[in-house]
Amino acid sequence: MTGPIVFSTPALERDVSSRVEKLVHKIHPAHPVHLFRRPVLTQKAHDFLSQFSGTVMYAVKCNPDEGVIITLAEAGITTFDAASIDEVRLVRRLVPDARIHFMHTVKSREAIREAYFDHGVRVFVTDTIDELHKIVHETQLANDLEIFVRLALPKNKEATVDFSAKFGATPKGAAFLLHEARLVCSKLGLMFHPGTQSTNVDVFARGIALAAEVIRRAGVKVDALDVGGGFPAPYPGQEVAPLSAFMDVIRQAVQDHHLEDLPFYCEPGRALTAEAGLLVVRVEQRKDKALYLNDGVYGGLVEAAKWQGAVRFPVHLVPKHPDFVVPSEKCEEFRFCGPTCDSLDMMKGPFMLPDYVAEGDWIVVGLSGAYTNACRSDFNGFGLSRTMLIDF
Ligand SMILES: Cc1ncc(COP(=O)(O)O)c(C=O)c1O
């Protein structure tokens, strides 16, 4: 069956694509390679820092590559959202002066102790009274705790993955927790996360409105509000407003609810890193319109499988031979199969590639700086990959 003739959404600007092609031909990678574009990371950090009128934290979980963390720190990001003790250790090692918020609502007792006593972490999040007790107990009734209460938002259908089903207290529960936490902490905050890849700008306005209502209901002084991550990256197939539109909505909601005096935080992951990532994979076999790659669902392409249909990843072909004469720019629909023996390891796509794609060619997957290297596993012995920071 021949797919419709359409042109690929470019994964790369023209000057970048020729430099990436040269690099790929030079290193000839037999395993997946994550390229992280330093200038793009720096630009994204500057965009957030200049447009958000509060503290921008980087959500490390999204891409814990050392070069990425250092680049963001050099660009001016000094506060980090860590989800685990390993992320706390990593940030402390790479950015010794960083301020670290331990933002997982369920932490082990050992992790809390180590974060507080060994790494100087003072900011912890909770969405239950049990976790609050755990934090207070394991820090030995410390008098310098900064506690954020996590509020669940109503289901966000426009997020690619809604988070409030798993984390966060109800408005009533959050008000109660604010009240209880106020008694044991030096600073008190409220936070929410609207879900990753939230394409609806108004979800932040609704979150701030609900947060204002919870703060009123709690009747205690609240010192900070954290509007989470969830800012979207521009994947083809979705309408994504620019970052400035999200910031305008946040600014307006803050004014509407008279919260201007409150210190604000946001904790983006994807929107800081996705556009900086290029994942180079190789075609090991072609079966009609199925391309068997050296990477897949258990490697750097987990989201390419999870988000079939609406969200697409832009792809760019690098033919095996540098002097290959491209017969035509026409693209067709392909699907991908990952390297493992598991048939869950398939990605329907469709991925738009030239029909001459063949074994030994490389495919550069764009917009792959978020939740790619972070999600790699060794399943079936296909864990080998490398990362490179590039300056273009
Ligand atoms: C608590 C928290 N903050 C921030 C993020 C980053 O979200 P995103 O990458 O959608 O910006 C996540 C993602 O899982 C999260 O759980």
Instruction: Please describe the biggest sheet, giving its number of strands, its sense, and whether it closes into a barrel.
Output: 8 strands, mixed
Provide the list of bound ligands, each named once: pyridoxal-5'-phosphate
CATH topology of the largest domain: TIM Barrel
Please tell me the overall pLDDT. 94
Which percent range describes the beta-strand content? 15-25%
Total count of domains: 2
CATH architecture field of the largest domain = Alpha-Beta Barrel
Distance between the termini: 39 Å
Number of helices: 11
The SS-based structural class is alpha/beta
In total, the number of strands is 16
Shape assignment: elongated
Proportion of helical residues: 25-40%
Question: How are helices and strands ordered from N to C?
Answer: HEHEHEHEHEHEHEHEHEHEEHEEEEE
State Rg. Answer: 22 Å
Please report the first level of CATH classification, the CATH class of the largest domain.
Alpha Beta
Low-confidence stretches: 1-9
Secondary-structure map:
Layout: H1 14-27, E1 33-37, H2 38-51, E2 55-59, H3 66-74, E3 79-82, H4 85-94, E4 99-102, H5 109-119, E5 123-126, H6 129-138, E6 146-150, H7 171-182, E7 187-191, H8 202-218, E8 224-226, H9 243-256, E9 264-266, H10 270-273, E10 277-287, E11 290-293, H11 302-306, E12 315-318, E13 331-337, E14 346-354, E15 362-365, E16 386-390
Parallel strand pairs: 1-16, 2-3, 2-9, 3-4, 4-5, 5-6, 6-7, 7-8, 8-9, 11-13
Antiparallel strand pairs: 1-10, 10-11, 10-15, 12-15, 13-14
The protein binds pyridoxal-5'-phosphate.
Pyridoxal-5'-phosphate binds next to helix 10.
